[in-house]
Amino acid sequence: MVTLQDVARAAGVSIATASWAVNDNKNVRIPESTRRKVRKVAQELGYRQNAMARSLARGQSDLIGFISDGVATSPFAGQVIQGAQDEAWRNGKILLVVDTNGDAGMERRACSFMLERQVEGIAYSSWVHHAVRPPRDLDKVNSVLVNCFDSEGRFPAVVPDEVQGGRAATDLLLQAGHRRISFVNAVDPSPASQGRLQGYRDALAAAGVAYDPNLVIRCAADQEGGYGVVEQVLASGATAVFCHNDRTAMGLFDALRERGLHVPEDLSVVGFDNQEIISAHLHPALSTVGLPQYDLGVLGIRTLLERGAEEGAEDAEDGEGSALAYKPIRVTCPTVVRRSIRNLAPVSEV
Amino acid sequence: MVTLQDVARAAGVSIATASWAVNDNKNVRIPESTRRKVRKVAQELGYRQNAMARSLARGQSDLIGFISDGVATSPFAGQVIQGAQDEAWRNGKILLVVDTNGDAGMERRACSFMLERQVEGIAYSSWVHHAVRPPRDLDKVNSVLVNCFDSEGRFPAVVPDEVQGGRAATDLLLQAGHRRISFVNAVDPSPASQGRLQGYRDALAAAGVAYDPNLVIRCAADQEGGYGVVEQVLASGATAVFCHNDRTAMGLFDALRERGLHVPEDLSVVGFDNQEIISAHLHPALSTVGLPQYDLGVLGIRTLLERGAEEGAEDAEDGEGSALAYKPIRVTCPTVVRRSIRNLAPVSEV
DNA sequence: GTGAAAGCGCTAACAC
DNA sequence: GTGTTAGCGCTTTCAC
Questions:
Q1: Where is each HTH lacI-type domain found (chains A, B) (predicted)?
Q2: Global pTM value
Q3: Other CB atoms closer than 10 Å to residue B60's CB: what's the count?
Q4: Distance A50 CA to D2 C1' (A)
Q5: Is the CB of B50 within 7 Å of strand D?
Q6: CB proximity list for B1: less than 8 A, separation 6 or greater
């Protein structure tokens, strides 16, 4: 292994000068010629910094922990991590990712591991948007919740704006002229099912359409669920359906086709989640509202880093007592228009 | 921050003894009482090892790099990483994951980053099984290729056994009594399309069924591809189809349904990949052959670690010249039986 | 058995 | 401007 010492010796300078030259430290004035020489020698010798030693000396690791409960199981987690990684990288940090698979013991161990590694913060994420009780150790370090939140607001959190998303989905249908719109929601209460319902109601209200509880149908949030509610949907007399997610829509598509019915001629459909593998490839392709996964990752890390910077600044204020609980940052869900909506009316400017 | 020094002082022992007690070092004889006292003090003080300092002193980082070209984009990558992480963890190592998104510059930077971090090895993985040219830096360290390989065999590689998988898929159909079996393959040549075709032919040959090139249909390996070849499939007179992947099968399902045809009554179908979100939820659910993603990850890391151990042992042998190229390790693809196959004959013992 | 002390490779005061 | 040097927190050899 080539050390800085070797480089310094070979370049005929002191180890300090070598360090400055290699790091291109502007605070110290070294002639450009020396800088170049050192760097050339370093290159030739195949010198590579030892980040361990550097971190130890500087008291800064440039590491950020990322705890996820399902990179493996969920098609969503990957995008979140990608966003987080990109944002971290942009700030000269690197992500230490651990997938706990939802296991609490694993979570604790992951935290320890990260803290031992001197991470500068931990992003704790869940693949499904819900309330969580993060491991105790999490408040020992600058941390942030991604796609989840703690009810007490002890941590900053970044989550998708389910209400806005539900409203956007419904608006898509309203704008196409539909007035009798069914909402096939998930049975289980969750930020998603509650928020999207709220959004659905908000959209209807804004459009002056009365809310009819009979149009809200509930089922398991997957293909089988959607497949099973087809009769209810048809019986409701709706001309359009907003499905809780793309999987439900996929099941509904299957059931409709078996009855010889066509989307969007017989029924317009909007999904949620934008699971590309489904939504982009159904026949016809499904209009839907996407989850801002990548952005959640980016904003999570950004929030973490900003808070880290503040912490450095605030000398007086003692964090412990800061009574004001964090309000989750809500991220907009993007609309994705495809072919599953039939236009009943000429598009009006809304 | 509580250091080992603090613990030692508080426990009234030397820093060395404290280190031994904390690490429960068996090579040195310290009375159990002292060990316990030190550990108790450490606990009380909230002491936590500094992995940076430890690594620096021991010259061992316990870090393994994992480069992937698509955690985000692919539903496959997640499982591979999960397997890799589990196996690493089991050996007291932690994974440093970087997603390069297929960008060569990013790959190089990721390598540098990892080498600076003193990783003990790098697993380089691709989400699609294919030949790769890994970044130059990769041979500076113990490394392994996962779900990909280099043509020169310079690195150990772990890949799915496409031939066995293709054979398994075809066997499923043969065992159900089908003799006229179509293979809807991908157009592009790849280890997957070539291997699965080979497996298809092997299975037919073993069953004494003549290979008929007319039964091999080619299309894009996605839903649109499968949707588009329905006429060809029907015209071929096949009673069963082996699709290159689940997405193709999904497209085919849609096209069949639009023609009022049913799976498996009118046509039996087998997919490949076992993309659960599709295969488990089609109507009927799709029989398929899974990719051994988790195992690829596990075996990748295991291979890495084993090679690392060997390296330590082999003093005499100079690795550089070892002419024998690595042969990829082929991992068995598991069969997943669901409802999309019609039994033509009573099951015979095979 | 236990402690003193010499590093691990690098950074950053502080001299000169 | 450049070099000297004291750490960063921990491990481990070598005395006692």
A1: 2-58
A2: 0.91
A3: 12
A4: 23
A5: yes
A6: B50
